[in-house]
Design a protein that fits this description.
α2 packs antiparallel against α3 and α2 runs antiparallel to α8. The protein has twelve helices and no strands. The protein is mainly α. The protein has one domain.
């Protein structure tokens, strides 16, 4: 009985933290769309402020919750490189991509990267998992296909790199011992790359008070804190589950856009949400249900 209670609490914790992380990612998408879409700040400056504000918040959080030094972990240079590559390519890609096309390329690449990694690591997907992946991804494509345009090669390439980098960063996070410490040190290690980006882009910098505010919110809350929560959730998510649940982000972002960017909720969004949610549910519980009943 005690084991069952602990299992249920752990499952509930995973669901809650996963939900918080996905809402943070969606918030990040809305903030980026407001900043880069309205051109209130240039892409390099947005990336720089986003990462630096994330560092400030994470260092403060790490100082307050440092705890037992024996469990203190310091991330990795690989994770930091992946984080920076994702952040900078994401920003630059949206210079030449519309939101729908960029989101499809990004999350499609993330999902494909993590699924291929799972298979490469020796996992064999159950039929229900493949079916759930197909349904969820189809729902996502159904949502944005009316707005797709032929992307530029540069934008397409940059967003594919961003998707691969974020997929790799998520994979690294599954082994995190101390999510706050790992995330903080991952951000801190991006400082040399941030300095280089400042040097290369300072001459063409375009700043505004609104752009700076959006970048700070993106870095401090949606990225910094959001990534810590995501690392915590990743402890109890399989690679496949972690890849597929991220397809919820565009759905949440689209709904958020109705409140912050005056976008309209369409019947297409409702149908695609049902498909994505149904596919995710099948991936998460399908293997357990079918294997157990068999």
């Amino acid at each position: 009985m005690k084991t069952l209670i602990l299992f249920n609490l752990n499952t509930l914790k995973t669901i809650v933290f996963t939900g918080i992380a996905l809402f943070a990612f969606a918030g990040n998408s809305v903030l980026c769309r407001l900043a880069l879409g309205d051109e209130v700040i240039d892409a390099p400056s947005f990336t720089v402020i986003r990462l630096l504000s994330g560092i400030v918040v994470l260092v403060a959080l790490l100082t307050v919750t440092k705890g037992d030094k024996k469990t203190l972990s310091k991330g990795s240079w690989l994770a930091s490189i992946l984080l920076f590559v994702y952040a900078v390519t994401f920003s630059f890609a949206y210079i030449s991509l519309d939101t729908g096309t960029g989101a499809l390329i990004l999350f499609g690449t993330v999902q494909l990267t993590m699924i291929l990694a799972s298979v490469a690591f020796g996992s064999k997907l159950h039929f229900s998992e493949w079916l759930g992946v197909l349904i969820a991804f189809s729902g996502f494509v159904y949502l944005i296909i009316p707005n797709l345009t032929t992307p530029s090669f540069a934008g397409f390439f940059l967003m594919v790199i961003a998707g691969i980098a974020w997929g790799g960063y998520s994979l690294k996070g599954r082994g995190s011992i101390n999510p706050i410490s790992d995330t903080a040190y991952n951000f801190i290690r991006t400082i040399p790359f941030v300095i280089l980006l400042i040097v290369l882009s300072l001459r063409d910098a375009h700043l505004s008070s609104l752009g700076i505010l959006l970048a700070i919110l993106s870095g401090a809350i949606a990225s910094g804190i959001g990534y810590v929560v995501w690392y915590i959730a990743l402890r109890n998510l399989s690679i496949i589950q972690a890849s597929v649940v991220q397809l919820l982000v565009p759905i949440i972002a689209a709904i958020g856009g109705t409140f912050f960017i005056n976008e309209i909720i369409s019947l297409r969004l409702v149908f695609s949400s049902i498909m994505v949610l149904g596919g995710i549910l099948l991936v998460i519980i399908g293997r357990y249900y079918f294997v157990r009943t068999r």
